[in-house]
Amino acid sequence: MLIKNVRPVDHREEAGATADIRINNGIITEIATGLTPGRNEQVYDASGAYVSPGWMDMHVHLREPGFEHKETVATGCDAAAAGGFTAVACMPNTNPPIHTRDVVNFILKQAAGLPVDVHPVGCVSKNRKGTSITEMADMVEGGAVAFSDDGDPVQDSRLMRTALEYSAMLGVPTINHEEDLPLSRPGHMHEGRVSTRLGLAGTPSIAEEIMIARDVLLAELTGGHVHVAHISTEKAVSLVREAKSRGIKITTEACPHHFDLTDEEIERTDFDTNWKMHPPLRTDSDVEAIIDGLADGTIDAVCTDHAPHSVDEKEVEFIYAPNGIIGLETAWSVICRKLLHSGRMKLPEVIAKLTLHPRSILNIPVPTVAVGEQANITIFDTDGEWLYDTDAVRSRSRNTPYLGRTMSGRPLAVYNNGQFVETGR
């Protein structure tokens, strides 16, 4: 196919001049201006749009196996492509969990032939129970790219030390959901003034920060790579920044909802459960700290923590609703509004958070837009307006606070694994 009138951009430099890109058998064969379509060649006119290496979301929940009523590998990848992502890393809170090589193999088999690459994250502990370590080397050999017990934080410090030692030998990160459970449960939102007014049990910021402090020390001791999942507090950002300054092997990620929304939305929307997530939405100062952390490089990647739930699970009293929202399809628009349109970051810096850093953290090859390379690209704009309504949702679930909103900035198409998927215009 031939992609016409597109501006290449990557993490190294601002967008260049408009060019055409020819792809044959999944390989980029020409990048030039004024290319003429060949016989039977599909043409896509991308006038006014950018093209970058394909984006990656390193933290999603595909729910398969076990919870296919919420999402499957196929529907999750549909949502990912609609959001401009050509790769995702899927978390292990499935049933059975991704705690053995056969489950890793199952997920890879389900993902075979899709336009989105799927990279499984294996469990730290068997059945995510936090008592005994999994067969990490076997899972890495089978295709796992990292380890995490995800929504169940590794509470046992000895187990976390062992996990970091093992993962260091295997050259992969250990991803921890940073939460001290005795401090945080049964919290249903951020602990603060709003939770007090609403009479809801809160999750304090300190529950996240204490666990990060512990993992910083364990990473320093073991030399292992700890990755902080979905960072959400001002103090947590400071802890990671200080640890990086001391050369400790630590990375982190932030979700669009954590640098866009606050706990006040729960009060404003009268306990709408689509605003319930974990870590919870926090305060204005936390939002600003996360944006600062993204801008200065403390926070390495942007992820979505895409967490599908069925309607019947979310349409209950706030305290009984599960945590989580879908986010793959709306991530880019939130990024544009909060980071680009605000002037807080430049386009190459943002692209790095979606292409270079997530893959580097997980030791996955980073694609490039160059002649002779496999075509793994995302085509997008930064200001086109569109309505995020039910017709725009590709996920099997609908649990999102952004439904019905007019968004600005949109992924337009992706090309990966020899497949072109047009997502919006």
What is the percentage of strand-forming residues? 15-25%
Class of secondary structure makeup:
alpha/beta
Radius of gyration: 21 Å
Mean residue pLDDT: 97
Strand order of the largest sheet: 3-2-1-4-15-18-19
Could you give the distance between the termini? Answer: 18 Å
Low-pLDDT parts are: none
Profile the largest sheet: 7 strands, mixed
Shape: globular
Number of helices: 14
CATH superfamily: Metal-dependent hydrolases
The oligomeric state of the chains shown is single chain
CATH class: Alpha Beta
Task: Please tell me the CATH architecture by its name.
Answer: Alpha-Beta Barrel
Catalytic activity: (S)-dihydroorotate + H2O = N-carbamoyl-L-aspartate + H(+)
Function: Catalyzes the reversible cyclization of carbamoyl aspartate to dihydroorotate.
GO cellular component, one term: cytoplasm
InterPro entries: DHOase (IPR004722), DHOase/Allantoinase_Hydrolase (IPR050138), DHOase_cat (IPR024403), Dihydroorotase_CS (IPR002195), Metal-dep_hydrolase_composite (IPR011059), Metal_Hydrolase (IPR032466)
Describe the structure.
The chain is α/β, with parallel strands linked by helices. It has a single domain, classed as Metal-dependent hydrolases (TIM Barrel, Alpha-Beta Barrel), CATH 3.20.20.140. 30% of the residues lie in helices and 21% in strands. The protein is built from 14 helices and 19 strands. It has helices spanning 73-82, 101-111, 136-142, 157-170, 181-184, 193-198, 205-222, 234-245, 264-268, 284-296, 311-314, 331-340, 347-354, 356-361; strands spanning 2-8, 19-24, 27-32, 43-53, 55-60, 85-90, 117-122, 146-147, 174-176, 189-190, 202-203, 226-228, 250-254, 301-302, 377-380, 385-388, 405-408, 411-416, 419-422. It has a seven-stranded mixed beta sheet, with no helix packed on it. Strands 5-6-7-8 form a four-stranded parallel beta sheet. Strands 9-12-13-14 form a four-stranded parallel beta sheet. Helix 8 (234-245) links the parallel strand 12 (226-228) and strand 13. The longest helix is centred in the middle third of the chain and has 18 residues, at 205-222. The radius of gyration is 21 Å and the shape is globular. It starts with a strand and ends with a strand. The model has no long low-confidence stretch (mean pLDDT 97). Substrate binds at residues 61-63, 93, 309. This is Dihydroorotase.
